[in-house]
């Protein structure tokens, strides 16, 4: 049997009640008693019973998080940022992946609820099919959506301003001389895919450039490579390709290189996310940087404000992204005034131009 509170109290020469008060910090004890109990607990290796504490305090100090897949570098980065924010308040993160399947997502949510998490953070995998399970969870614990959201909202959401992101990307390639731009992204199963396509269409219409039919598949390297092969097979390449995420862009770049296409001399390529792939590919990828740390901070802040059955309308917070110009896009042509350089920032040993 492990060390109990009775053992600590006996070693410190105090009552069990005094030892409990000293270790919990909920009620004051004299400095002398606190010091004796703390020293005795350390010497004996005493660990509080987390289950008993949870039942007593009605809190577990844990937050559950469900993302579509941890193999996607963006979600990995977001999970790390959320965990960092939770650590500031002494809370732990329990992570699950839905594997892009609503049925698995529902089971993961139920598992986390059974573990009595204090709150949930989720990036729903499906705009429509995820809604029942997400709404059910939101009726039981505080819940905030991140990056993606379900149809009709239903819970607070923090994400990126996709209209701004695609406007920056389109304006940049147009300023570099592009007159035909193709969008390569995911099928419209989630809110991110829908918002990014809508933002692209809005930006190209405003810029007055030929956008052609979008190529929609998955947010994966394999789909990016396949989309690149399709563009090569068409025979006429666009001046620029804007991608729904960096994984698509990296796969596309490989296909273009194998096809003998020079980037950015013949085709400019712009990604979305600014994850590790962006600086490691050759040439380094021009991409829209998602403000992951700021998004994570807002998610955790909102989670602390949400109350179950609160009649207030769900909050939606879209955070402005930044375009980071590297080497896969042509420089702004002389006289172009559609974008303005905001400065130079250091990153991974090379200069990056960050555009407002």
TrEMBL record:
<dbReference type="InterPro" id="IPR028082">
    <property type="entry name" value="Peripla_BP_I"/>
</dbReference>
<dbReference type="Pfam" id="PF00356">
    <property type="entry name" value="LacI"/>
</dbReference>
<keyword id="KW-0805">Transcription regulation</keyword>
<keyword id="KW-0238">DNA-binding</keyword>
<protein>
    <submittedName>
        <fullName>LacI family transcriptional regulator</fullName>
    </submittedName>
</protein>
<dbReference type="Pfam" id="PF13377">
    <property type="entry name" value="Peripla_BP_3"/>
</dbReference>
<dbReference type="GO" id="GO:0000976">
    <property type="term" value="F:transcription cis-regulatory region binding"/>
</dbReference>
<dbReference type="InterPro" id="IPR010982">
    <property type="entry name" value="Lambda_DNA-bd_dom_sf"/>
</dbReference>
<keyword id="KW-0804">Transcription</keyword>
<dbReference type="InterPro" id="IPR000843">
    <property type="entry name" value="HTH_LacI"/>
</dbReference>
<feature type="domain" description="HTH lacI-type">
    <location>
        <begin position="3"/>
        <end position="57"/>
    </location>
</feature>
<dbReference type="GO" id="GO:0003700">
    <property type="term" value="F:DNA-binding transcription factor activity"/>
</dbReference>
<dbReference type="InterPro" id="IPR046335">
    <property type="entry name" value="LacI/GalR-like_sensor"/>
</dbReference>
